[in-house]
Amino acid sequence: MANKLILIGIDQYLYLKPLNNCVKDAQDLKDILLEKYDFEDWNVTELYDHNATSKSIQDLLMRSANTLSVTDNLIVFYSGHGHYDDDHGRGYWAPSDSSRKQK
Question: 6, 22, 44, 54 — which has fewest CB within 10 A?
Fold first, then answer.
């Protein structure tokens, strides 16, 4: 059994207004989990700012899904812009290369 952590924090976007503390929030969570809980550095994957594109996030989630065992635990933490689609009742993350206009 392994505790695995995926951290995605985006302050800097190509087309959306920048945010201030998303990367820091992700890094703070990592520090807490490594210090106080049973998480190890080698089981932490981080994508920040311009590295957190739509393709890189999707690739990371697919790789993770293919390598998890039934006894593993996985936390996925996302901090950044998002969008809620009222028509479909769904929310979406906005990757760093998102061009969706914020309301």
Answer: 54
Return left, alpha or beta for 77; rule: phi > 0 is left, psi -120 to 50 is alpha, else beta. beta
> What's the maximum distance between 2 C-alpha atoms anywhere in the chain?
43
* CB count in 10 Å sphere of residue 11: 18
Low-confidence ranges of the chain (pLDDT < 50): 102-103
Distance CA 20, CA 13 (A): 11
Note the pLDDT tens digit of each residue in 5-27: 999 999 999 999 999 999 999 99
Q: What is the DSSP letter of 48?
A: E
Is residue 26 within 8 Å of 19, Cβ to Cβ? no
